[in-house]
Request: fold
Amino acid sequence: MAGRRKWISLAVLSALIVLLPLVFPSGYYYRVGALVFVNALSVVGLVILIGYAGQISLGHAGFAGIGAYACALAPEHLGLHPLLALVLGAAISAAMAALIGRPILRLKGYYLAVATLGFGILVSMVLTNERALTGGPDGMVVSDPGLRSLLRDMGWRVSGGEFWYGASGFVLLVGAWLALNLYDSPTGRAMRALHGSEVAAATVGIDVPRQKLRAFVISAVYASVAGSLLALQNGYITPDVAGFMHSVEMVTMAVLGGVGSVLGATFGAAILTLLPQVLTVFAEYEQLVLGLVMVLVMIFMPQGLLPSIAQRLKGRNK
Amino acid sequence: MDALLQFLFSGLTVGAVYALVALGFTLIYNASDVVNFAQGEFVMLGGMITVFAYQAGVPLLLAATLAILITAALGVALNKLAIEPARGAPVVSLIIITIGASILIRGATQLIFDKQLHRFPAFSGDDPIRVMGATILPQSLWVLGGALAVFAVLWVFFSRTLTGKAVLATANNRVAAQLVGINTGWIMTLSFGLSAAIGAFAGVLVTPITLVSYDVGVTLALKGFAAAMLGGMGTPKGALVGGLLLGCLEALTAGYLSSQYKEAVAFIVILGTLFVMPQGLFGAKTTERV
Reply:
């Protein structure tokens, strides 16, 4: 049963990634799609943290910032290949998460939210203020990883949009696969157990702080890789990627779609990424609509859009 | 020495505003266990509505009163429309609701008014007063005096009136309060209204010094939260001390260390407080119940 659920999720996700381009009216939509996948990737990380382990973070944009700036800075200053820089960023994020996670994860609820928020904002402040290194609020250029020209040499001509659509879609699939595998693994079960009750989980021998920390570190790596991909596909990066609003968006995407499931996360990411694209004509109303959506969904569909809709389809209205 | 005094003056002024925001957090947190991330928007609304009413020809005092009343009504509406329907929702949902509400208020303000920086004249002119080699704006005295007055009035309210004691009882144990006949729903409405009014009052006081625009709320909310945390969530005394302390720390950091990282102080304070003494300076120690 559990295994079937995993394969259904993966099949739906890959079908969407492969089939969607058939209905794209223009090349621009590849860009939007790539953005959706990148956002979904970091949100899948939050599904592990919030949905599995029941912890919250309002600072994960900080890790996205670390990943993004690793890809911007390491090739320039250390001469690393951008893809190695992505790995380096993920390693730094994991180390950071492990370092601050210990003391922070002792906290609960609002305190945890605010502590992580503090971490995220500190990261974005460093990125904004260290102008000499990061270019300050104006951001900096990220060099091209040269993967597309590699494909071209192999005789495969793709546009930038198409390439990053495929690449981010692929990484999202891998990320979703890992997250789904984790769900039924001993670690995943331990995480879900402590979500239910920390005291009960501890009683049956689960090392609660250790499992919380694992979830935190894993989700930090997801955010970091997503940040790196964002930097690489945009070709430039600003400190906004680490900003408070980005953290809020990430958590909102996760909870909006249905924080328990990987598919829900992707759905939430898609909606919140597409919302501003749809509203470009009404740019002035963007904040108004975003705020309204957040409040209304949380009040009327507290479990998130996808689970609520699924429940309604099954006719199990409670 | 002069410089130190100068920094402390400006620190106390900003700190008084943080204290009022922290007080607003505290009131709502006590009544409903909700941390209201839209608290900063109340301050912004207080400033913005006063500005536009004043520009429309309404006398300043009336404009300010109007702003406080409208904001209080919005606070009540926030409770009725968004918090009460989500009763019992997990913390994550409540966080998203109040952050959503703050984004909504910001979006609406920017549509109804504009995106510019605004101010209205200070209550008693802009000529700085010299005190032992440092200077202080008359408006700063208004801010400090106003904050202290609010805290004094609230102290009397909590310790001398039946309604005030009902609020305290609700904060202590909602079910028990209900059992002795306290209308806890009404206490929540009252707390949101009061909290919004206090926020708007802070906005009115500080706008002549710091100016106001539609987006000043977020930072204020976060700083106010840091102050509340530093003092200990849930105690008005903690809000006052935490606010003033945070303001002074910021001013001293800006003066002696780096003005760029002045903003970081609040968050270092949050993290430091949480690591070292999670219950804050005056907060009560709690244990988890199974």
Notes: Chain A has a mean pLDDT of 87. Chain A is about 75% helix and 0% strand.
